[in-house]
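not sure who needs this but someone in the group chat was asking about Zn(2)-C6 fungal-type domain-containing protein from Aspergillus saccharolyticus JOP 1030-1 so here u go. i didnt clean anything up, its just raw.
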Amino acid sequence: MRRPIKKACDECIARKVKCSGTWPCDACRQSSRRVDCTFLKPVGRRGPKVRRLEGRARSVVVLVGTGLISSDQDAAESCNSVLSMGLDSVAWVDCATGQLAARDGPVHRNHTAAPSAAVDTAFYENHTSIPLAVLSHIVHLYQQSSYSVWPIINAPALLQKLESIPDVDILRLAMALSAATMAQLQLPPLLFGDVAMDCTTMAAECMKLRDANPSRERLDLRSILVSFFLHVYHAKRNRRKSAMGFIQQAISGAERLGLNAVSVTEQVMTFDEVIANKEVLFLLLWISERGYAMHLGLQPSYTCPIVKPDFHSCSPEVQGLLELGQLFATFDMISTRHRDATTVTFAGSLAATEAALSGLSLSQQNGPTTRVADYCITKEWMRTIIWQKALSQRLLSSTSCVDLMTFRFPAVVGRALLCSLQGFSESDLLPLGRDQVSLFRA
């Protein structure tokens, strides 16, 4: 019986022919041309390939208490398999409590499987490979960190739906929300058994359900939110064309439902327990498209003036969103009222807009810290854009009595931003994205 060779020579590997393993090997000796029979290439890893995680993730979160990791031995084996991927650290999260259990090693206590009496396993296997424990964990994170930024999902109601037998619409919405939350917070991949799931996995599963479902063309609030969250995911992955397409899709659908009207029809506002603050949904879409278009230097698809919802009393998160919308409405003074203005009137328009922005202030200074930070950063960002417009039109002068028209204005904005962010921590800025944390550190 011929003994299997441990390593083929470099020439046989390149030519993809069978090697005898001797030196020189039979193939090299019988070759019509002179070749060097060498064994310099290192031996590659044998066995099945490990799924590569997108990006440069160096850590992973392992969900315990899910039924797949039920003892210290299971945890240790799972930890070894994770570290074999080349990752630096492992964080263990107990699904029953949502708390961090241990770091950089196996857990030191037993975990029992989470109850799932009302769950039809076959139903989920036919629709998605993402376990409900993973989706529930990320919805919890949305509730803790991202609700103040996107106050449009009733997280407790969505979690309750996920605990029973959710329909495809709920699964799609939960996956889109998970993709956006993981991308916005740059969460490490979640390990469930031997499968690592990141934001790309969530978005891909959402798109699979979206394309496979015959009712995907049905227009409702949930489908609009799916498009919005997919926009957030693609924007954070720097896929600009897809991100712009999804937010414009959401805006178009909201227009067709009449969400941009002064009075929204009762049919559109039908009770849906998983959607919160429906009255500000179009405002959130409008702000998102305006901000992303400004970032890319593009023209937004919705150019009509925004109709600001009228609330006598609302939550601090919604109030913060309303005041953020006021910032964008004030900034629109440049493009809508003075589009065909002369150089002199355009300079006056820039100065008037900057003065109006400077005069605005958040009425709830003690509101959600993330919302206050978002307001301050957006305000100074807009003032910088106005100065860049003045610079592009050669309106700056070192002798101007208006700060906006001088070369020192960016320093003025920088000082104002640092003063407004005093007292904020990195955790306050994290729900706004890692780019804002980088700005805070700078």
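also Strands lie at 59-64, 89-94, 100-103, 190-192, 195-197. if thats useful
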